[in-house]
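Batch queue: ligand-bound targets. Current item pairs a single chain with zinc ion. No template structures supplied; prediction is de novo from sequence plus SMILES. Inputs echoed for audit trail.
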Amino acid sequence: MTVPILMYHQIHIPPAHKMPFRSMIVHPDRFRSQMRWLKRLGYKGLSLRDAVPYIEGRAHGKVAVITFDDGFRNVYENALPVLQEHGFTATNFFVANQIGGQNEWDIPIGIQPTPCMSPTQLREWAALGHEVGAHTLDHVHLPDVPLKEAKRQIGGSRDVLQDILGAPVTSFAYPYGDENARLRDMAREVGFTHAVTTERRKTLPSDDSFGLPRLTIRRNDTWLHFLKKCLI
Ligand SMILES: [Zn+2]
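Prediction returned. Tokens below.
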């Protein structure tokens, strides 16, 4: 049994002009249509936490894992109502030092400043049954920083989010999908139980829980592209 883990970033109207990573902004109408397709085909959209028994082969059924990176406010505004409407859950991987802030890490590479969810919005996300995952303190390239700093970034993000939430945070996403064996160990050591990368394929029950692959859903993916990624 293989499970697709879908990766989104922003759910918002993409800018008309070209800019770096515009492909990572999916139009709200397209997101709604993708969730509708999943439902129509008998799939249940689940957070990583809720999907673990399926990924590990202990439960069976049509499941697609829905994940968002970076904790953007436009996911709260535009995706959350759609998830609720379909009875789906999802995981958002938050950059802990930017709760109520913005995507500071993107600005040097020419991406528009975009607000991240506030602490109140993060708590509401969780209260509605969705998962709060961690994505470091500052969205760093983990293999490029000293080990001590990498551990502070990984463990610190878990601590900050758990303080805001008052509940355990067990899922982690490596920024830019940058990871290695040492970083997987670190994520385990600080208390996470699962971590996702950006390796492009569906999961297999034999996958390392700290190296789960994901499928990127892009701005211009048609419904056919979308279904191919999910089903094949
Ligand atoms: Zn990210």
